Amino acid sequence: MFAFAVALAAAPLVISVYAYAVYPCLLWAIGRRRDVAVTRPSSETWPTVTITVPVYNAESSIRTTLTHLLQIDYPRDRIQVVVLSDASTDGTDDAVREFAARGVELLRAPVRQGKTAAENAAVALAHGEIIVNVDATISVPPSSLKPLVRAFDDPTVGVASGYDVSVGGRDFAATKGESGYTGYEMWVRDLETQVGSIIGASGCFYGIRRSIRTSALPPGLSWDFASTLVARQQGYRSVSVPAAVCFVPRAVDVQVELKRKSRTMARGLSTLFHFGSLMNPFRYGVFALMLLSHKMLRWLPFLLTPVAILALGVLATQNNLAAILLAAVALGVVIGVSGIVYRRATVFKPVALAGFVVASTSAGFLAWCDAIRGARMVIWEPTPRPSISTG
């Protein structure tokens, strides 16, 4: 019984060490033995591109977003911009219509159906060979689209993901942990690209071959994650493109970030379960092992954490070391909660990081609860983010 309790208490830590440390090391060891293929442009002609911008009640930011997109460095006659309004109830649609003379198209859902349903409907309207999804709350530098599209010169590439850079001013100290995690995630995607294929694309900025989008995705799933899975099913790989930078403002506080993470992970779990056959290593080989390592084994500790703490509590009644560890966990939770509640810019960085860990763990557990009970995260609530200037 004692050994079983030890195993339960240690499970989240052991799994996390593998998923966050051992897995990248394995990727690095495999990747360094492979030659990096240099893809040269297949022709001097740029492929046609459809940029889709899903929005809901984005009147305050959509004009700025569209102004920036229309300044992007790409042949104007080979680009289509479509705004997907999820039955916005403010002035978003009217603001988009102001850009009609500049070629911006509006696709409005008659009733709220969610982001995925809007992205499904956009395929019929898209003229481009490549569909590029851009989040309305982020900033894409003018030079970022061409590198993203150039990745498709490789005929084996079905999805190309942008390179997220988390930004925010001094007022957002409580969410600075997100910046470090984003940098880590981009590093792992670089390693996965070297091995063969990334496991999930950036929801903020990614491109997919229109020919891959042959079937609609159930509205409770996420196209950014599903895009790489659909690509793999059709024999394509997905890559990260470091030169395709996009700037992602950090949320204004940890509570907002917790809500976003919980919703995103719940949809991610539903997407993973929907494409569960891809986790079969006998059929999908290395990709299946990468999918298990990058997604399932990252998310599983969130489900096991409450059980592990309970097991540690049982062990603490019999073992002094377990009692010390339980006290350390309790102290970490207290510090983390203070990092969430105390939002001033001067908050000590380790406290901000602890707040991020507590918020992420809570969000992960809630996501598992939603996924297990079959909650359908269909209706879309965009995360409020501060506006940024990239110069």
Radius of gyration from the CA trace? 22 Å
- Poorly predicted segments: 170-174
Arrangement of strands in the largest sheet: 3-2-1-4-6-5-7
N→C terminal distance: 61 Å
How would you spell out the order of helices and strands?
A: HEHEHEHEHEHEHEHHHH
For CATH, the homologous superfamily of the domain at 36-253 is named as: Spore Coat Polysaccharide Biosynthesis Protein SpsA, Chain A
Shape category: globular
Helix content: 40-55%
Number of strands: 7
Number of helices: 11
What percent strand? Answer: 5-15%
Largest sheet: 7 strands, mixed
CATH names the topology of the domain at 36-253 as: Spore Coat Polysaccharide Biosynthesis Protein SpsA, Chain A
Mean pLDDT: 85
What is the CATH top level name of the domain at 36-253?
Alpha Beta
Describe the model.
This protein has 391 residues and is α/β, with parallel strands linked by helices. It has a domain at 36-253: Alpha-Beta Complex (Spore Coat Polysaccharide Biosynthesis Protein SpsA, Chain A). The protein contains 11 helices and 7 strands. The protein has helices at residues 2-31, 62-69, 92-97, 115-125, 145-150, 176-195, 223-233, 254-274, 281-316, 320-341, 349-372, and strands at 49-55, 79-85, 104-108, 130-134, 157-167, 205-209, 237-249. It has a 7-stranded mixed beta sheet with strand order 3-2-1-4-6-5-7, sandwiched between helices. It is globular, with a radius of gyration of 22 Å.
